[in-house]
Amino acid sequence: MTEPTILKVAVNVPLSRLFDYLPPAGHASVPAGTRVLVPFGRRKQVALVLDAGQGSDLPTEKLKRCDARLDDEPLLSAADLELLRFTSAYYHHPVGEVAAAALPALLRAGKPLWPIDRYVAITPTGAATDLEALAQKAPRQAELLQHLLDAGGGGLAEDELTEILPNWRRSAKSLFEKGCLERFEAQARPDTVDHDLPSTAGPPLNDDQQSAVERVRAQPGFAAFLLDGVTGSGKTEVYLTLIADVLAAGRQVLILVPEIGLTPQLVGRLRVRLGVEPAVLHSGLSDARRLHAWRNAQQGIAQLVVGTRSAVFTPLPQLGMIIVDEEHDHSLKQQEGLRYSARDLAIVRARNADIPIVLGSATPTLETLQHCNAGNFTRIALPVRAGGATPPVMKLVDLGRSASNDALSEPLAAAMEKHLHADGQVLLFLNRRGFAPTLICSQCGHIAECTRCDSRMTVHARDRALRCHHCGAHAPLPSACSECGSEVRPLGEGTERLEDIVNARFPGAIVQRIDSDSTGQRGAIEAALTRAEEGSANILVGTQMLSKGHHFPQLTLVGIINADQGLFGTDFRSAERLAQSIIQVAGRAGRESVQGEVLIQTAYPAHPFWQSLIDGGYPRVAEESLAERQESRWPPFTRLALVRSAAHRQDDALNFLQRAADHLAGQPSGYLRVLGPVNAPMARKAGRYRAQLLIQGSDRKVLHERLASLRAMLEADALARRVRWSIDVDPIELF
Ligand code: ADP
Ligand code: ZN
Ligand code: ZN
């Protein structure tokens, strides 16, 4: 008698194991990469087959049978599954949850890859219409008919129509009545590829760009490159040339960008220059559009996929190159649930697929620079701006010696005056939104705090509220102290207050504030940034949001309002981070004819950090920080993992991690340092007490063996039911 085939499936539950099932009735087996519906406890679950073979820990008669097979063809290839397995093993995260993170929501929920769509098509009556005559009377109807005439008998899906003509339904009504159009339902069909979009050539590459392109071309197969180029050095032009090569060879390209870097401008530039329609994947898409883009990638129809971090999992059967733009950006790391670095997984993916990967940044991470130093990655420098613009000069403003009664020192205000007078645009960078970070009582000194977090409430003047930036709690702005009834006043500055100060100081100027409060939605940010780019505001006031993706051609002066927060940070990455954010904002300034200026306000002008940054720029700060990290044995010279816990009772959070520490201590040696458990820097957040345990290892293999055994132990621990916990491998925030 032959043994039955047993399917090993991944189920979206927080358990680090696969589950065994018999194939559904009528199926001898189901290939890996296919979804099945399985009975799981008292529910039905969508699961992904990872393996089909013989043997199970359970006797065959105890095994349950899958209810159904959900895909005719596997959704994921062997290479895709390999990446999921790697992700699960490296980040010590349940493979079922990894699979869930990799699939679009509709597929995760068991919906078909090719859903039933509603279509509209032209009828013979419609085709016989005199379009010119109709265009005279009802131009919108004529336009709709023309599109459907072009589409032929298959018609267009309603969603597609909505994209082309948002108000098509209004014009369609009378066309249906006249019998010119018909409606039907049908299964979604593969998109047709438009190979012939018009494309325009870019500027001829300069010597640095040309040599960058040639160095990448010289290494087919896996190789990792760092394109280390100052803002405006023409990195994007280099990407475009490299992408064109790969597309011409009939292969696909994946471009990963930070959340805020994925702008309509970038997508438009890709489309216009390459003549292909990029499939775009980001968290703001509707489920249907996300599935559509994913399917086009998976079917090999989309040649170019551009997306934010989770796009790293997109199946791409013909993948020929990966590009990670702004590789230093934190949004490439997912900070909750499955905590992964899209950049690092992209490198693994490129290695598996034996293709090149290009990481680009003006401020590369020390991890990436160290890979270059060690010879793992090839560093390619683009040291000068391509358009001929000169880099801005950076200067410090000593707050101790210059008169200022608010956030704006006299030297900075004078420089603003000068630049505005010369028709330059000014950008003021303050990484703190709201009106003021603190509300204090002028009599008793009481400070308004969040009731659910160990943190202060931020004053928001525009909507007259106190808001907690950590848990989202909010309350109306009080007019008197809750303790003694005396007058309260805001202390310190956020972007709202800075906006007021600037308006008062420069009454004739148009001021535009750009932060997540002023802009709210994705589209609104875009509109505000585009207006800023076009130069219709004289002074821009904003947070980090101003420092990415956009170039402001009129901008000649950047003022950094308060950089000192970053000087004394407790995180070993503080210096790297501060330098990155200053250099990124500074990069927005300067045009061909006018030298840009960057003024940095500080109360500590003698701090060695400033000397390094002013004299040597980012490369000097990076070099010195790397030396310090080697000295003090921080990454990239060692590896870290952070185990976090959160619970309603502080004891539970700490005890849980104490068991983790004991477990690690009881294991055979091998260099591993366990620090903690300790309360998290913000011990209480959103009503939960938080603690953490830092594990530092010099040997990756040893560290990962210990983490695997730790994960198994913690999953089985009874206390885990009262504690939210996670393992963060290669954490970038140490709290
Ligand atoms: P980065 O991506 O490094 O910030 P971009 O590729 O966006 O730089 O280029 C910055 C600006 O310089 C763009 O306006 C671009 O059109 C222009 N540029 C890039 N390369 C060249 C070149 N070789 N000759 C002329 N202009 C160029
Ligand atoms: Zn008081
Ligand atoms: Zn709070």
Fold and architecture overview:
With 735 residues, this protein is an alpha/beta fold. It has 5 domains: 6-108, 3-Layer(aba) Sandwich (GIY-YIG endonuclease); 116-187, no CATH class; 207-387, 3-Layer(aba) Sandwich (Rossmann fold); 389-436 and 492-628, Rossmann fold (3-Layer(aba) Sandwich); 639-729, Alpha-Beta Plaits, CATH 3.30.70.360. Helices cover 33% and strands 23% of the residues. It has a 7-stranded parallel beta sheet, with helices on both faces. Strand 3 and strand 4 form a beta hairpin. Helix 19 crosses helix 20 and helix 21 crosses helix 22. The longest helix has 24 residues, at 608-631. It binds adenosine-5'-diphosphate (ADP) and zinc ion (ZN) (2 copies).
Q: How are the SSEs placed, and which strands pair?
A:
Blueprint lengths: L5 E6 L7 E3 L13 E6 L2 E11 L14 E2 L8 H13 L4 H8 L2 H4 L7 E7 L1 H4 L3 H7 L1 H13 L4 E2 H7 L3 H10 L3 E7 L19 H11 L5 E7 L5 H14 L3 E5 L7 H11 L4 E3 L5 H12 L5 E4 L11 E7 L16 H12 L2 E6 L4 H8 L3 E6 L10 E6 L11 H12 L3 E5 L8 E4 L16 E3 L4 E3 L6 E3 L11 E4 L3 H11 L5 E4 L1 H4 L2 H12 L5 E4 L12 E6 L13 H13 L10 E6 L5 H24 L7 E9 L2 H16 L6 E14 L2 E10 L2 H17 L7 E6 L6
Parallel strand pairs: 9-14, 9-15, 10-12, 10-13, 11-12, 13-14, 16-26, 17-24, 17-25, 23-24, 25-26
Antiparallel strand pairs: 1-2, 1-4, 3-4, 3-5, 6-7, 6-8, 18-22, 19-20, 20-21, 27-29, 27-30, 28-29
